[in-house]
Amino acid sequence: MPRWWKAAIAAIAALTVVAAGLVTAGPAHAAAWSSSDKFGSWSNGGYTVRNDVWGSGAGPQTIWANSYSNWGVWADHPNTGGVKAYPHSARNIGRSISSLGSLTSNFNVSRPGSGSYSSTYDVWAGNNAYEIMLWMNKQGAVGPIGSKQTTVSVGGHTWDVYRGSNGANAVFSFLRTSNTDSGSVDIKAVLNWIRGQGWMGDAVVGEVQFGFEITSSAGGMNFTTNSYSVTSS
């Protein structure tokens, strides 16, 4: 075979390798949904994913989701006081506490090591007369509404329990005594405990929400829910 022909074949082979490398190094697939709208929302699998940038003085925030279970935000909120946003995924239950055989949830998150925020459930009951917050972790200058009532082990975790009001509804905040980024929680057990204190009757459970209550994330930070689900019977 002539030397020039061998060189041509070698050149073609080299170009083929380069082309294959370019295909392999292509961009990752985009999320199924994303929005920079303050109140952007997306329905998927019986859940609703919301950006929910509701606080004053908020900066930009973009939410993305592959499903109700796998979603996240990039948020750049200034280092000032007050909650700026609560991006979350929610499932509506629509049943009284006593009619539920079980109400449980699982979660797994990746979160920044700075800023001020909590990874928290927001459970609504009694036509939004009652707000039950389950703080799975917290970072920076954040704290619950109301005053501390007790420390209790219920629903699979040990919590410092706070009781107060935001002016529109009663707020019961359960702050896990140590941070965790994954686990499961028996929500019905927590609701039954609250009923046992006489703080709430046999209310109808509305939405079970889970997300990040963000006060500050200056410079832009990523918050990711790797998995989340709610199961009831």
TrEMBL record:
Which SUPFAM superfamilies does the UniProt record give?
Concanavalin A-like lectins/glucanases (SSF49899)
InterPro entries cross-referenced by the UniProt entry: ConA-like_dom_sf, GH11/12, GH12
Which biological process terms from the Gene Ontology are attached to this UniProt entry? polysaccharide catabolic process
Q: Does Hydrolase appear among the keywords?
A: yes
| Protein name (Swiss-Prot/TrEMBL) | Glycosyl hydrolase family 12
Record flagged with keyword Hydrolase: yes
**Superkingdom of the source?**
Bacteria
- What keywords are assigned to this protein? Carbohydrate metabolism, Glycosidase, Hydrolase, Polysaccharide degradation, Signal
Family annotation (Pfam families): Glyco_hydro_12 (PF01670)
Return one GO MF term.
cellulase activity
Signal peptide as annotated in the record: 1-30
UniProt similarity note: Belongs to the glycosyl hydrolase 12 (cellulase H) family.
